[in-house]
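Hey, I was hoping to borrow your eyes for a little while. No rush at all, and the record is pasted right below.
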Amino acid sequence: MDSFVIKAIAAELAAGIHHARVEQILEIRRSVYSLCLRSRGRKELLLLSCDPALPGAHLLTKPPETAPPSSFCRALRIHLVRGILREIDLPDLERVLTLKIERRKPSGLLKRYALIVEIMASRSNIILTDADSGRILDCARHVGSNQNRFRQLMPGRPYVPPPPPRKLHPRSLAAEQVPEAFSSERAAEKWLVQQVRGFSPLLAKEAVHRAADAPLSAVLREMLAAYDQERFEPALYQDPATGAWILSALPLRHRLQRERIAVSSMNEAAARQREEAEGGQRLTGRKKPLLQVVQKALKKTSARIEHLSEDLAATRELEAVRQEAEWLKGNMHRLKQGMHEVHLSDPAGQAAPAITVQLDPTLSPGESVQRAFQRYRKLQRMAVIVRERLREAAEEGDYLHQVLDAVERADAPEVLDEISEELSAGGYLKKTAKTRRAKRAAPAPPLCFRSCEGHTILVGRNNRNNDRLVTRLSRGDDLWLHAHQIPGAHVIIRNPQRQAISEAVLREAALLAAYHSTGRRDARVSVDYTLRKYVRKGPGFRPGMVTFTHGKTVTVTPDETLLPKRCDS
């Protein structure tokens, strides 16, 4: 959150929850708290966070899950519950929000408190102070003298505000102090962030973009006027490259309009961004153990393939051993017990080079020949077994790479639930008592897209999804696509009318197959396609694995901006 966003949130809070009563204080998780407020007959939930990953303050759109209260949460309850929120203060172009709360004690004494939320990334904190004495009653994160000699945040210490940044204040910035020429846009953005107070990298990028049509000094005055007059336009954007949600109090002209998500207020925009970010964090947290399991299994499979390859190399002397046995048999009249070696020529009389064979002197000629044939048959059997095991190990490696890709692409908890069940069924993931008791997760639906000509295109989200696409959710005349010889999703173009699929629709589906594969970052990806009736899932095939015939190939360049629209968008 930058200073403009915090000012917009503070303005909405001042208008909406002024003189609200604090009914309860909840702890959502460590460093994140919720004030339950009653204002004008309605309840509001105000989130306060000093979590370094997601600091901020805004109203919540839905009740959160809560955790047992920490000592700081209990201190907030003791001093603030049944208090009245009298004022919301925010210093000019700063990110320190102060909630001034009054509470009358049973004795009749009126106590005044200041709940200070410092929204400063890794140095974020929430501090409860006595407004009259200025002393700290408690804080979410204690900062002792060993961490900061000049600004200690400990109970009993006087509260010292964060020092103002050593930057130029835009109000006192003369036009001649603003360079109008930079070596690059990046240099201009860097100058704004480092030299001008209140400008985050996002605001700096926007200011430089607007400066293409006006002097930079005029752009800064325009943006500052919007801040002073609270002429905010809450904006929420989604970056198509990373999927990240971008929060802004001003419309971002350097972003495409189609990237903008409609919101009615700054608080709603902040709440939606937090929900998305926290959902992503939870999803990442759930992915981590699955990735570790799959990577561990892949490591073991790779080691097994390496050892089997060494064994197979040992069987490559099979022909030499057969020749040795045959020549020993053809030259048995030259063998005598007690010989250590013998030089043999081809008994067939062909011009083959002579060979030297090592013998066991304790064996008779017949036993030496018999041992040579036994060794040959043993190597024969070993070669067959090693090749089969090598094939199985290679198939397992392909399957695990497919699972790894599915975990990385997973975009919802139910998709990960199915992958967990699949790994448990395959013996890669140990079943716990909790998972054994849990009901089987409902199947995750495939991703659905609409082509330029109205065709429905389905994309598998994991191996079980891929199996359902092939065996249940498609018909023989539908078109099936998959990235060529790399892990990825199965893609189906629905074709109920049994019409010819146009080149445009085929390329859209191929783009989806390429983008939802491990080749999504490659410059060119080959995609195989054929009619669904030519795709087979044979007995004993692992989840998501198929064979196909009558295949053709198209080559595309993965590009998210060219993907067809989602059916649910």
Remarks:
- The chain has twelve helices and 23 strands.
- Residues 207 and 220 are 7 Å apart (CA to CA).
